[in-house]
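Dear colleague,

Following up on Tuesday's group meeting, I ran the structure prediction for the two-component complex that the binding team flagged. I've pasted the input sequences exactly as they went in, so you can double-check that nothing got truncated or mislabelled along the way. The structure tokens for the whole assembly follow below. Feel free to forward this to whoever is handling the docking comparison.

Inputs:
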Amino acid sequence: MHHSPIHFKHDLFFTCSCIAALAFSATTSAQNLNINKWLPDSVQVHGFLSQGFINTSDNNFFGHSEGSLSTDFRELGVNGSWSALPDLQLALQVVWRDAGQTDEDGFRIDYGLANYNLLSTESSLLAIRAGRVPTPLGFYNETRDVAATRPSIFLPQSIYFDRNRNLALSADGGYLYGEHRTEFGDFSFNFGLITPRTDDPEFMNTILRGEAGTLEGNTSWVARLSYEAPDKGVRLAVTYAEFLSDFHSSRSLSNEGSFHFSPLILSAQYNAEKWSLTAEYALRRTRLDYFHSSDIGFTGQSYYIQGTYRFTDKLEGLVRYDELIWDLDDQYGYRYPARLGPSFSRYARDWTFGLRYEILPSLLASAEYHHINGTGWLPHLENPQQEAQRWDMFAFMLSYNF
Amino acid sequence: MKRQVPLSKITRSRVALAILLCLWLERGYPESIPNKVNPDSVYIIINSANPQRQISQTGLNAIFNMRLRHWNDGSPITVYVLQDEDPLHKTFCKQKLRVFPHQIRRGWNRLVFSGTGQAPLVVETKEEMLKQVMETPGAVGYLSGKDLTSAVQILEIQ
């Protein structure tokens, strides 16, 4: 089904779009698309377009990638913002994304929000944000769609799961944001009450164990505290969130209840002129409360360490080790029931080596190689048959943003 | 001893020349620009109608990080920058904001693509920078000392 004429048409369309974007960005001035020159200063339009190519030795990731080249990973987004008053801004981003079977060719509103600064001085900021707001989780979540804001083609999957990206990316609700800038650095907090999005096929499939039914977000919250000293190159953050959703299978009465997910994420980054070092650690508590049977609960752990080096202004290299453990009480999955999956689906250890080259300030080419032990973050929807424990992945991506 | 006389004469004439040069330079620069303008340094420039003359270092960073959106009197701020690869932009980021250009670019991308802020307006040349700051009320930008004119005001960092 991955090589049906429809997909081929899409591929052709996208390859053409990428070439058009390349030609376009080469002829217009970098970073500042001419469109913004025709708009009032208070209105801005930005966007991005990316096309990925993926090949895996075993297992499918974002399309039919096993022993083949999948082009089933593309993202296209346009956002507009209007600064109605100096301290009031409205913004909307519409995204079309395809990522194998985990995300199928759909338009969606990734965010649509109003930001109002209650207080804004040289040293402090207090703001409220409401609508569909990007969720502040760790360092990369809020802008994870845009290839240029990611250090690699795929974010470290142990924390930024791509298979349920919509759930993590943004949610409907309201936030209180505060920032205090001192000579020692900037301190900020972000607290929000939200209703999570539940439009990821993989997430729904996991929770409902493959049965048809409904999954609805319930009142949840998220909080992040950050410290940033750009002149010293230091960034630190602590995030804690409680995500709740209710599920209801239309097939079996017993498969009904609520899903609780509460991650604690610690983040640290050091930036020098040529290199930067980033590490994030997450402790993830998951609980499934069934109405008619006993609860299931487990605590998992994720972390990664990542180094990047800027060889030149345009060329950057990356090395990363990323580890995911689903259940700390059963790290190697030995006690995991075989009917639910192999023991190695309970963890993933991923070594990544990447390069990214800025062809133009707005056009980026990235390539990376992953060596992975375990299938902890592999989309199960795309791998209904046997999964392989050790696998390699090559990915190449062309991305444009303005 | 004989040698000292001509030496002091030379020194005296040099001092006179320096004073003349200073006077000439002072005439060369308009009144509104302080006499100590260094042609090779980077200066923060604002629209001349802006009553504000000073800002703190944290305030300046907040403006160019696109976090502070209004002046002390409440009027909106319009930020102009040169392109990322422009040498003057790089010098400005390092010397005045004390950050690397790629750090500030990441910050703008975070604001733009999370819907919580806007990017500064990019101009392609120093001439355009001067023109935009001259013509836009509430505008702020930067130029090197040698390109300054009396049509814009310098914003001093406290």
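Chain B has two domains: 1-30, 32-157.

Cheers,
M.
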